[in-house]
Design goal:
By secondary structure, this protein is an alpha/beta fold. It is built from 17 helices and 16 strands. Bound molecules: adenosine-5'-diphosphate and magnesium ion.
Length: 498
């Protein structure tokens, strides 16, 4: 209690000699204390304290009544935390040792000296307030210790267990009462996580090799029932202000579940990665098969069906020359027109499936020719610019570029209402770039992808899939009213690898 607060300090005087009591009361008041009351017996003192507890009690040891000052103090202390200072004229050893048990805050020897009494009272008040603070701190600490999510064990400097929280009891299987005073190494039996070898070295060394620093380590804990669990923990030294070790705190937690979850996650991740890898291979193979199938059908259409149709056409034309009747001639004429239409369709189909130019002459002529053909048909202007240095590229790249351009151009014709389109093929810092730019209405790319993922369309997804499968990247930039750019990049290492 601080001195400047003494005005509010109330004191109860328990003294059966009236004159002495009055004298003490006057002295106390003169130094600023409030005298709560004067009582002559233990019974009265207890009653008054229960009614209105004072800040301090001055207790004469020898008082009237059935109980003396020491017994009175004992009763009061069992219910209140009030500092008690004994008043005594003389004391035999027996009385003093009885008094000592009640842990008095001091003795004032009669005759009462104002100055000494003042000092003793202040010390008693201070000591009491310090004790209250310490008790409060202890309560805090014990709550924190008990309700912390981690297991905690504290030992003295020699590793003898002093306390342990509930979680530590659960984790080790031991009760605090059973283990208090026992060596920590007997209770916290550990073995190496990997080798499973028992760790015989003192526990502290395992958890904290460096005295100054906490190092998180894992180990297997073998509990009282010999059950194993994986724990992770730290140990740290408790030091006093002279840097002497006074104890050790070990904090740990059971990470068995966590580890199992990690393992499971790892397993699933591997599984998914593998499946993805497999899917990639299958997709790639599918595209290869599709391309070769297309090439085959395109050739078939062009060479076989085209030849047959041409032969029929020639035959009919010959028949036409030989025919005499006008009726037959008109039929034959119609036949020739139909065959010409069929031939046109077959060629178109064949080219769309797989232009033989792509295989025979490569990407650039095929691209120029295809763009030309499509744009003329759609009535839009087109410009193809190609880096002069670009010659033939690896087969996969050529086909992918062609298919991207094909899909982009089809989209432009189908959706964009563009009037002009530009196709650029160039190298930049060793990477191959293909850009297809239109000046059309543009679209919401994100929304289009969402629709595609629902299975509504395949074009854009197909482009992305193709490009990414061979290690390229594709970016589609579009804004309503601002046209669309389809930008494909094949890194140099991808082109050179092929
Ligand atoms: N160049 C473009 N200009 C405007 N809209 C486009 C363009 N390209 C694609 N789109 C839009 O994106 C959608 C998805 O395209 P896509 O996946 O190729 O499917 P599909 O062409 O079969 O509709 C199209 O329906 C269209 O709305
Ligand atoms: Mg499309």
């Amino acid at each position: 209690m601080e001195l400047d607060k003494k005005g509010t300090v109330s004191i109860l005087i328990v003294e059966d000699e009236k004159i002495v009591a009055m004298d003490i009361a006057v002295s106390l008041k003169s130094v600023g204390y409030e005298v709560l009351g004067i009582v002559a017996s233990g019974k009265d003192a207890i009653e008054l304290v229960n009614q209105s507890p004072p800040d301090l009690i001055l207790m004469d040891i020898k008082i009237k009544g059935s109980i003396d000052g020491i017994e009175t103090a004992e009763i009061i202390q069992s219910q209140h935390d009030i500092p008690i200072v004994y008043l005594t004229a003389f004391a035999d050893e027996n009385t003093l040792s009885r008094a000592r048990i009640t842990a008095p805050y001091g003795y004032i020897i009669k005759p009462f000296d104002k100055k000494t009494a003042h000092t003793i009272i202040e010390i008693a008040l201070y000591k009491n307030s310090m004790e209250k603070t310490i008790k409060e701190n202890e309560r805090w600490l014990s709550k924190i210790l008990q309700y912390s999510g981690d297991a905690m064990i504290a030992t003295d400097a020699h590793g003898k267990i002093k306390l342990m929280n509930k979680i530590a009891e659960t984790e080790t299987g031991w009760n605090t009462d059973e283990v208090t005073g026992r060596d920590i190494n007997e209770i916290l039996k550990l073995s190496d996580e990997n080798t499973k070898e028992q760790i015989n070295a003192p526990i502290i060394r395992l958890f904290s090799e460096d005295h100054e620093q906490d190092i998180s380590k894992t180990a297997i804990l073998i509990d009282k029932e010999m059950k194993e669990k994986l724990i992770a923990g730290t140990a740290s030294w408790i030091k006093d202000d002279k840097n002497n070790t006074t104890g050790i705190v070990i904090v740990f937690r059971d990470i068995t579940k966590q580890r199992n979850v990690e393992k499971e996650r790892e397993r699933l991740f591997k599984k998914v990665s593998l499946a993805q890898e497999r899917l990639k291979v299958v997709s790639k193979r599918l595209l290869e098969v599709q391309e070769s199938e297309r090439r085959h059908i395109a050739r078939e259409l062009h060479d076989e069906i085209g030849q047959i149709l041409t032969a029929i056409k020639i035959n009919i034309q010959t028949a036409f020359k030989l025919a005499g009747s006008e009726k037959i001639e008109s039929h034959l004429n119609e036949g020739v027109e139909l065959i010409e239409e069929a031939l046109f369709q077959v060629r178109k189909l064949s080219i769309d499936l797989r232009p033989s130019m792509l295989d025979d002459l490569g990407l650039i002529p095929a691209l120029r020719w295809y763009v030309d053909r499509q744009s003329v048909r759609a009535g839009i202007t087109a410009k193809v610019s190609v880096d002069e240095t670009i010659m033939r590229l690896p087969n996969e790249i050529e086909i992918t570029c062609f298919r991207v351009a094909q899909e982009a151009l089809t989209n432009i014709i189908k959706h964009s209402q563009a009037t002009h389109v530009e196709i650029m093929l160039y190298y930049e810092e060793g990477d191959l770039h293909l850009k297809i730019i239109d000046d059309g209405v543009g679209f919401n790319f994100f929304a289009a992808v969402q629709r595609s993922l629902k299975g509504e369309s395949m074009g854009i997804l197909g482009m992305q899939e193709r490009v990414e499968l061979i290690g390229g990247k594709i970016k589609i930039n579009s804004k309503a009213g601002n046209g669309t750019t389809v930008h494909t990049i094949f890194p140099g290492e991808v082109i050179n690898l092929k």
